[in-house]
């Protein structure tokens, strides 16, 4: 029986993602097995949505093929998922969510609703209705400024503003370097969540013009509560000594403590939960992988793929 590609695995479910490191992964029958110092562990990849491979991981070609055959997305990441380097190909082969995201970002009125929703999520929806985007952006600026000031007061770390030059890394003060490292870690885990459910990292709503624009949108939901206070604490603890490594490890532990990955996906869906007018909805998605993709027509809508239309019809 063909798979129903409309039913995507739920990454927020306990068994839908798995992080491994310092191990070897190879094929075992129609699944994969993980070998590390504790022995061998079989992984039922048919029910797994995302396999995150951290440092020290090697994987055989046959194991990658097995993951792909079972619709399990493979992602190469930093320790604890705090960086994101590359991805494989998951079960999100149909484009329903990507098209929805594209519709929302391409229609100015729909995009504005998503932007408003994202700003309200940062304030737990406790802000007045009918504010302009300029007013919301101003409130967000004040909130971030207050968050930096509060973290500085709590830790005693002086704060003169966000200042970072990627070409002169060592010139930045410790807390600015810590913030850059922590945010990079946050972008990694947000990237994994976004691609695992079929959205594009590049189609941002508040941010635009970068391959990670949507990652920046989602990561901003968590900076005030996670990476900003964490970075100030790291800078206050031992100053410059091993700062970058300490921040990465602190992010790994904090993300695990908060079970952050399982929170990001519902937050993404909540941010994009904007009603699309019925005449813009396109929901004719093929469930059969081997059937050629349909072709779009401005008058007739989607037409069968794999057809020669040289007669003009």
User: Helicity level, as a percent range?
Assistant: 40-55%
Percentage beta strand = 5-15%
Assign an overall shape: flat
The ordered H/E elements are: EEEEEEHEEHHHHHHHH
Q: Could you describe the largest sheet, including whether it forms a barrel?
A: 4 strands, mixed
Can you count the beta strands? 8
Number of helices: 9
Sheet with most strands: strand arrangement: 1-5-7-8
Question: Structural class of the secondary structure composition?
Answer: alpha/beta
Low-confidence stretches: 1-9
Pfam family, one: Cas_Cas1
Cofactor: Mg(2+); Mn(2+)
Organism: Methanooceanicella nereidis
Protein name: CRISPR-associated endonuclease Cas1
Task: Give a description of the structure.
A hairpin with a 6-residue loop joins strand 7 and strand 8. The protein is flat, with a radius of gyration of 22 Å. The protein is built from nine helices and eight strands. 32% of the residues are buried. Helices cover 42% and strands 12% of the residues. It has helices at 61-69, 96-106, 108-122, 133-155, 174-196, 213-219, 223-238, 243-258, 260-271; strands at residues 17-20, 23-28, 31-36, 39-43, 50-53, 57-59, 73-77, 84-87. The longest helix has 23 residues, at 133-155.
């Amino acid at each position: 029986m063909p798979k129903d590609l409309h039913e995507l695995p739920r990454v927020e479910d306990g068994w839908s993602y798995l992080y491994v490191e310092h191990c070897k992964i190879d094929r075992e029958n129609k699944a994969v097995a993980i070998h590390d110092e504790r022995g061998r562990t079989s992984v039922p990849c048919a029910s797994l949505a995302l396999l995150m491979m951290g440092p020290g991981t090697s994987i055989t070609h046959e194991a990658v093929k097995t993951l792909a055959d079972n619709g399990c997305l493979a992602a190469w990441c930093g320790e604890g998922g705090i960086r994101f380097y590359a991805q494989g190909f998951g079960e999100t082969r149909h484009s329903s969510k990507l098209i929805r995201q594209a519709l929302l970002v391409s229609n100015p009125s729909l995009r504005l609703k998503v932007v408003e929703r994202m700003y309200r999520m940062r304030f737990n929806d406790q802000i007045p209705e009918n504010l302009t985007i300029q007013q919301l952006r101003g409130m967000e600026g004040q909130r971030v400024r207050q968050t930096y000031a509060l973290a500085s007061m709590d830790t005693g770390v002086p704060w003169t503003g966000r200042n970072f030059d990627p070409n002169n890394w060592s010139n930045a003060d410790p807390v600015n370097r810590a913030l850059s490292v922590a945010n990079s870690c946050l972008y990694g885990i947000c990237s994994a969540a976004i691609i695992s459910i079929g959205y594009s990292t590049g189609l941002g709503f508040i941010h635009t013009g970068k391959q990670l624009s949507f990652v920046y949108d989602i990561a901003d939901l968590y900076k005030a509560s996670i990476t900003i206070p964490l970075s100030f604490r790291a800078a206050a603890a031992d100053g410059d000594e091993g700062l970058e490594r300490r921040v990465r490890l602190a992010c790994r532990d904090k993300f695990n403590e908060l079970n952050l990955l399982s929170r990001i996906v519902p937050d993404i869906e909540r941010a994009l939960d904007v009603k699309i007018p019925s005449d813009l909805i396109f929901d004719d998605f093929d469930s059969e992988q081997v059937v050629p993709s349909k072709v779009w027509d401005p008058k007739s809508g989607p037409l069968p793929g794999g057809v020669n239309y040289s007669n003009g019809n």
